[in-house]
Amino acid sequence: MAKRVVMPALGMAQETGVLVSWLKRDGEPVTKGEPLMEIETDKATVEIEAPASGFLGGVLAHKGDVVPVGQTIAWILAAGEQPPASASLDSQSARASTVSTQGETQEATPSPNISVEISPLARKIAQEHGIDLALIKSNGMRIEKADVLTYINQLRQTEPEPASVLSTAPSPTRLTPASPKARRLAAERGIDITMLRGSGPDGAVLVADVPLEVETARSASSLETPSTVWRIMAERMTASWTSVPHFYLIREVDASSLIEWRTRVSSTVEKRSGTRPTYTDLLLKLIGFALREHPRVNAAWANGSIQFNQEINVGIAVAVEDGLIVPVIRNADRASISEIASQRKDLVARAQNRKLRPADISDGTFTVSNLGMYNVDAFSAIVNPPQAAILAVGRIAERIVPSNGQVVIRSMMVMTLSCDHRVVDGARGAQFLEDLANLISDPWRLLA
């Protein structure tokens, strides 16, 4: 029986995904669990496994297509089986959608009472180009992507070439392809959008193409359009910074015992896992143990309630070319140092090669960001919602400190705990940081 292949959801807030590539061709055999396609979401570019064994068929989405979550994009078929006759890219979307005339005003007057079926891709392209769907005529039973593109081409054939310099004079009769958000930002900044060069599909003006102010528009050629991952990472961090009530706890801890611990276990861990343990590996183990004793720090803010997580899954912030990815070390409290080191090495390598799977970046309950390898002494990190806290770790450096009335040199490390005050208050955060600092100063207590 045919098995649907759908655009998966890798996050609670995800609405669409971009098909980066198919790893199998239409008609090729596939085995359940093997990589089938690559998709780009708000978190990363990941490989998606085949949901069943059979033959890939009825492919409905292609490279670069933006597809709603849950949408059917292909089928896994048995030998000789054909995809359902009704299969189409928007087979899972609502039918008989009503064209809305809300949004940006076009030079033509839309028909207010038109009801017609619209494919999701057609709607997406129309929104990106600022086009009223009520102005588009369909050659079939519904408006398809081709109908929208035909309309755009017809408009361009009648339009003059865009100006090469920015002008603030209004051009009410000119239609410029642009996303609704870009059009709104241009209006707010007093910029004529018709004078901007777009970097989107078919030259559409996107948010990144809108200068911060008119005076900087002349240097717009030096602007860089961020990748989808970077752009959405920026949006998520902005949302966290503006909506999560952050507070910070800073603790300097003697890392001499941590250094000794790493020296003692390195050879054993390397034999078992094939990799030498890093300080991050050791910290992940200690953090997992401390979170077990402080479940509130391992909790999350969810729809006005505090959600306590049963598992302790610690994410590690990994910098990649496209932005920041947070793969997850599962059950960090129960995993051995060898298991953590092996997982960390594998996850970081696949993150840098864009080979992460959905399970690799899901279900994190706490995050660690370590910039010590960049010689950063201390910093504050932004909470990764809906998690309650994130730990920022600086470098280990020798410092002069007092000890029993004497001045001594110790290997010190600064940790900053960023907390969501809706879940963790100051006392709870301080108690967690205290216990973690004690574990770092005396990691052998884990054996007890």
Descriptive overview:
By secondary structure, this protein is an alpha+beta fold. It folds into three domains: 3-77, OB fold (Dihydrolipoamide Acetyltransferase, E2P) (Beta Barrel), CATH 2.40.50.100; 117-226, no CATH class; 233-447, Chloramphenicol Acetyltransferase, CATH 3.30.559. It has helices at 120-128, 145-158, 180-188, 228-243, 256-273, 279-293, 337-352, 426-441; strands spanning 3-6, 16-22, 29-30, 35-40, 45-49, 54-57, 66-68, 72-77, 117-118, 142-143, 246-254, 300-302, 305-307, 314-316, 318-320, 323-325, 328-329, 366-370, 389-403, 406-420. A six-stranded mixed beta sheet has the order 11-20-19-18-14-17. A four-stranded antiparallel beta sheet has the order 1-8-6-3, with no helix packed on it. Strands 5-4-2-7 form a four-stranded antiparallel beta sheet. Helix 1 (120-128) runs parallel beside helix 2 (145-158), helix 6 packs across helix 7 and helix 6 crosses helix 8 (426-441). The protein starts with a strand and ends in a 7-residue tail after the last helix. Mean pLDDT is 80; it is low at 88-115, 159-174 and 215-220.
Q: What's the short story on this structure?
A:
The protein is α+β, with helices and mostly antiparallel strands and 448 residues long.
SSE inventory with pairings:
Blueprint: E1 3-6, E2 16-22, E3 29-30, E4 35-40, E5 45-49, E6 54-57, E7 66-68, E8 72-77, E9 117-118, H1 120-128, E10 142-143, H2 145-158, H3 180-188, H4 228-243, E11 246-254, H5 256-273, H6 279-293, E12 300-302, E13 305-307, E14 314-316, E15 318-320, E16 323-325, E17 328-329, H7 337-352, E18 366-370, E19 389-403, E20 406-420, H8 426-441
Parallel strand pairs: 9-10, 14-18, 18-19
Antiparallel strand pairs: 1-8, 2-4, 2-7, 3-6, 4-5, 6-8, 11-20, 12-13, 14-17, 15-16, 19-20
Helix pairs in contact: 1-2, 5-7, 6-7, 6-8
